[in-house]
Amino acid sequence: MSAEQRSHKLWGGRFSVPTAAALDALNRSIGIDYRLWPHDIRLSQAWAMALWGAGVLTLEESTSIETGLARVGDKLHGGAQPEPSDEDVHTMIDRMLHVEIGNVASKLHTGRSRNDQVATATRLWTIEIAGEVDKCIRVLQQVMIDQARAIEHDLMPAYTHLQRAQPVAGAHWMLSHFWPLERDRARIASVARSAAVLPLGSGAIAGSAYPISRVLLQGSLGFTSLSSNSIDAVGDRDFVAEMLFAVAMLGAHLSRLSEDLILYGSSEFGFVKFGEAFTTGSSMMPQKRNPDALELARGSGARTLGDLTSLLATLKGLPSGYNKDLQDDKRALFGAVDLMLLVLPAVAGTLAEITFDRARMKAALSSTMMATDLADYLVGKGSSFRDAHEAVGSLIREGERRGCELTELPLASFRDASTLFGEDVLEWLDPTRSVARREVPGGTGPDAVQAQIEEAISAIRPVRETPRGNQLAFQMV
User: Fold this and answer.
1) Structural domains of the chain, ranges and CATH numbers in brackets
2) Which residue in 106, 225, 266, 282 is the catalytic one?
3) Is the pLDDT confidence value at 220 over 60?
4) Tens digit of pLDDT for each residue in 373-401?
5) Which of 161, 228, 267, 283 is flagged as catalytic?
6) Is the predicted pLDDT of residue 5 greater than 50, yes or no?
7) Which pLDDT score, from 0 to 100, does residue 31 have?
């Protein structure tokens, strides 16, 4: 028996010399795609049943292959590792199946190609992992809700251009990071739906020559629809790109949350105090407590963006059908998702043990942050907003010249700026009243924030859907 035969390669009959070692090393993908084995076994069992339905296999042969694959799965679950001759996970499973049931295993590959096989396995993996990512996001969102409740009635500055802008409830700031994650969940759920199109039966490029029931394959594997074109089906990696985009957006949102917390935890801000379990020390400076988990999360946004860019650059240059360039789709996909599954629990843990310095947050509020309130006051007295803006601007300049807060200016200064200012003007410089005025839905008013918290709680509440017929429910729960 030749070395090529012993390798259980799924190809090679038209070659007269062994594959070069350098090509074998480059071509071998088992280190990346090994994790697809549960899905490859599942789809192979469905294919064996479909071959029986098409009259290609006897019932005995189909049953033998299905039970043999189950035993292979047990061994892989128990830790069976690839051999040097295993080119990819499909070759590995083929080799192990031959050991289990003998030559009847050679009939399994009838009518299918690794092209539609790997596309199907990757879609199954993507559908499954979408649920895992969703669960991790919801854990972080629950921590955000808990922290929002803790600082629901505490005020802090909100920033534009990293300059103090207006006072807001602490919960309002916290939940400003909740809703981007909710959009991420929606995108990931959409990816699961997009991935639920069955390519199996497309063969290498032209479709299977055997009367395979793709509808039965769709139902047994839980896909919601069939691919419409075999050429497109084997080369379609849109769902991978969509998952990478969703993950890249998730990475960007985690990066922005991390940046806020890192800034707020600095001595210059002092709004938050980090715990000990998710921070590290300095090898030289004993006083340091470094938010390493947040800094690594901030860096993850760049890595996930790189994975997305890498795949898109690959896809845009490919001709139609399957090309071996697509072997690297899983490297990008698995790497990006693995990173998020590491980052999300670390960010959730860091945020959970953070404490807020309410006094420091309140002390950061200044009367100039109510400048818009003063303009609104004048508008209420009949001024145009343009004139009100100019009048309040002159008051800000006077306060800067005197080196004092607006609350320390005499009433005469206000009346010099606008005759519409009355003795009640100082009430409009109270940050608590400023926040209370903003009760529009989505605003920072107390009732609006309470409604927002309830909306957030509802958003992550598990939803149960009952599948109808062969259709799977892709509602993330």
Assistant:
1) 3-110 (1.10.275.10), 119-155+175-209+224-362 (1.20.200.10), 367-459 (1.10.40.30)
2) 282
3) yes
4) 999 999 999 999 999 999 999 999 999 99
5) 161
6) no
7) 82
Q: What is the model's pLDDT at position 277? A: 87
Q: Report pLDDT digits (tens) over 316-374.
A: 988 888 887 788 899 999 999 999 999 999 999 999 999 999 999 999 999 999 999 99
161 catalytically annotated? yes
- Tokens describing residue 366: 């200044």
pLDDT at 466 over 60: no
pLDDT surpassing 60 at residue 468: no
Active site includes 282?
yes
Q: 470 pLDDT band (50/70/90 cuts)?
A: very low
Q: Report residue 372 as tokens.
A: 């818009």
